[in-house]
From TrEMBL:
UniProt KW Transcription keyword: yes
Chain coiled-coil ranges: none
One BP annotation, GO: negative regulation of DNA-templated transcription
Entry GO MF terms: DNA binding; DNA-binding transcription factor activity
Keyword terms: DNA-binding, Transcription, Transcription regulation
InterPro entries documented for this protein: Bact_HTH_transcr_reg, Chorismate_lyase_/UTRA_dom_sf, Tscrpt_reg_HTH_GntR, UTRA, WH-like_DNA-bd_sf
Transmembrane regions listed in the UniProt entry: none
UniProt xrefs under PANTHER family: GNTR-FAMILY TRANSCRIPTIONAL REGULATOR, MANNOSYL-D-GLYCERATE TRANSPORT/METABOLISM SYSTEM REPRESSOR MNGR-RELATED
Pfam families, A to Z: GntR, UTRA
Gene source species: Acrocarpospora corrugata
Domain spans labelled HTH gntR-type: 1-34
Name this protein carries in UniProt: Putative HTH-type transcriptional regulator YmfC
Gene symbol of the encoding locus: ymfC_2
Length: 216
């Protein structure tokens, strides 16, 4: 190819950083079967927004909504009580037809009742959940706290996403709040690990080379 090994190594490294190649220790470097979808963790955006921003077509499969009761963990997040009623919305999100995310959203039924909205209206595929909150429920999500951990797909999640049990997943649990800091939505999202990369911009420390003078 007429280039040095150093240049070739740097080019391969850049392609890996861009999500076009994947390196597997002990096996080699391979071309990804689909582009890596990259999202900044400092910006709260829906899976559909993330997929659309990468020039891919978002879709929804296996969408269901049902009443349920809260576990102790879920109740603690939402500042509610264990066994309180909750509305569960579950969906598989697709990118150009590929299953990439399984989402489970917990919505306090009091929000639906206050707006006179029926549970089945959550199945409207033409409106994102955040848009639904703003337009139909009159609730604006201001900020959220996310907990992120790696995991392996169990049998149920694997079946939903059409992948094998034990497939690597990135799980994001997020609690969203309104302008009054009240919890209004608890979500758990299972992302297929080889389809997504999440990044965050970190500032500092911007240390100066000058010695620090003692305070006087």
């Amino acid at each position: 190819m007429g280039v040095s090994r150093t240049s070739l190594r740097e080019a391969v490294q850049q392609l890996e950083l861009d999500g076009l190649l994947i390196r597997r220790h002990g096996h080699g470097t391979f071309v990804r079967s689909s582009p890596l979808l990259q999202s900044g963790l400092n910006v709260n955006q829906s899976a559909s927004q993330l997929i659309r921003a990468h020039g891919m077509v978002p879709g929804t499969r296996n969408q269901t909504v049902r009443p349920a009761t809260l576990s102790a963990h879920e109740a603690g997040r939402l500042a509610m009580k264990p066994d309180d009623p909750i509305v569960v919305l579950e969906r598989v999100r697709t990118a150009d037809g590929r299953n990439v995310v399984f989402t489970r959203d917990l919505i306090p039924p009091a929000l639906l009742a206050a707006a006179g909205v029926e549970m089945a209206e959550l199945l409207d595929e033409n409106m994102s959940l955040y848009h639904f909150y703003a337009v139909r429920l009159g609730v604006s999500v201001i900020d959220g706290t996310a907990w992120i951990r790696p995991d392996l797909a169990g049998k149920a999640i694997a079946e939903m996403l059409g992948t094998a049990p034990g497939t690597e997943m990135l799980v994001i649990e997020q609690l969203d709040r309104d302008a009054g800091e009240k919890p209004v939505l608890l979500s758990r999202e299972h992302y297929v690990a080889d389809a997504f990369e999440f990044v965050i911009h970190r500032r500092g420390p911007a240390l100066s080379g000058r010695p620090q003078l003692p305070d006087r």
